Amino acid sequence: MKKLASILVLVFAVTFTTQAQKKRGGNGERNSKLTAEQHATLAVKKMTLTLLDLSEKQQNQIKPILVAKMTKRQAAMAERKADRKDKKRPTADEMFAMQNKRLDDKIAMKNRMKDILSKEQFDKFEKMHKKRSKMAMHKTKGKKGSKNNKRDQRGDRS
Questions:
Q1: For a disulfide at 39, which of 11, 19, 70, 77, Cβ 3.0-4.6 Å?
Q2: Does the global pTM surpass 0.70?
Q3: What pLDDT is stored for residue 96 in this prediction?
């Protein structure tokens, strides 16, 4: 009986340790060490290699746009991290302003990409983004640990 109890304790200890390591060392940490320029270069090359088949001219036009986007994103992430450290929560007006700005940036990015890409490339670009956003939504769907979400997963929607 003592052996069984010690084995169970060991299994739980290993399980909790691996879960803690997964939370700390995900892709975000590895990628955060890259500069905005490096992120943009990788993104442009991925676009070229996937469906878009970008020309050299298009790559040169898209790269500065992505560098600016990545720089803004990294600055916003650092600001949010500092706010989280100070346990500062944004007000409803600040949340509205952030979401409004994010959507405005998305619209501007879409318009710039529409100007640079051909019709076929832009259609493929749109499909890629829809697919990516669906995957992201699916990924974050189960992460919220609320009681309502657990009920939804079981099928109780009361």
A1: 70
A2: no
A3: 94
Q: Collect all residues with Cβ–Cβ distance below 8 Å to 128 and sequence separation of at least 6.
A: 50, 51
What is the rounded CA–CA span in Å between residue 74 and residue 93?
22
Please say whether the beta carbons of 80 and 95 come within 8 A.
no
79 torsion bin: left (phi>0), alpha (psi -120 to 50), beta (else): alpha
Angstrom distance (rounded) from CA 108 to CA 64:
14
Give me the pLDDT at residue 111, please.
Answer: 92
Which of 15-29, 38-52, 88-102, 132-146 bottoms out in mean pLDDT, i.e. has the lowest? 15-29
Q: Which amino acid, one-letter code, is at 70? A: M
Per-residue pLDDT, 29: 47
Residue pair 74/36 in contact by the 8 Å Cβ criterion: yes
* 38, pLDDT greater than 60: yes
Angstrom distances, CA of residue 130 to CA of 45, 69, 134: 19, 19, 6
Torsion region of 55: left, alpha or beta (phi above 0 gives left; psi -120 to 50 gives alpha) = beta
Contact 63, 41 (CB under 8 A): yes
